[in-house]
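Section handout 9: paired folding examples.
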Amino acid sequence: MEAAAKEAKTTKKCNTCKLELPLEYFNKFKKSKDGHQYICRECSRECSKSWRQQRADAEQKREEEHIKRMSQRLDAMNVIYRKCIKTGEVLTDKFAEVNLEWLRSPRASKRN
């Protein structure tokens, strides 16, 4: 009797848009009882677009933060290794000498 009930069912309700749609509107999914996903293809497509956009935004934000950290680190290194334009002599600041070890550490960029 259950086999007959499965064969007779030709529609399914999408969990996202709540519409009753034919099974052709759902992607295959072997783990579900009826062999189809719980959301329709259109909703699945929209979810995928949204997820990709969020990932792209997050990646862009990480890249901007990385560039900011690296520019700050380079600015600090430039303070340490300033050269006199006339003589070519390397000038250092007392503050920079104290923090030289910190700037060279691999975890320095994570501290900002």
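Moving on to protein 2 of 2.
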Amino acid sequence: MATAINWDETYQQALEYFKALIRIPTINPPGNEKPAAEFIAEILRQEGLEPAVLESGPHRANVVARLKGTGEKPPLLLNGHLDVSRSRSPSGRSRPLTRWRRTACSMAGARWT
């Protein structure tokens, strides 16, 4: 029998991870996603997975991990990105506070199939 999930505790832990992740500077250009990928990889290791941090260039990286299922159900792929773009006002000036909002929800063009 599966252990019951404490959703309040899980929410608080996810929120702390999110706050730490959003503080890692990954503005593209230049990107510099490697510290964020390493942060996520460490969380996955703590959960018993074996993530790989794959570098596509200097300081540019992705994290990949697999949680093997039983094969009884179709696979599920979770996909996201670690870089963000600097938000600009209509005048072209940087807007740091808007950047944080955009960082939290900028998966434009994501497709679900």
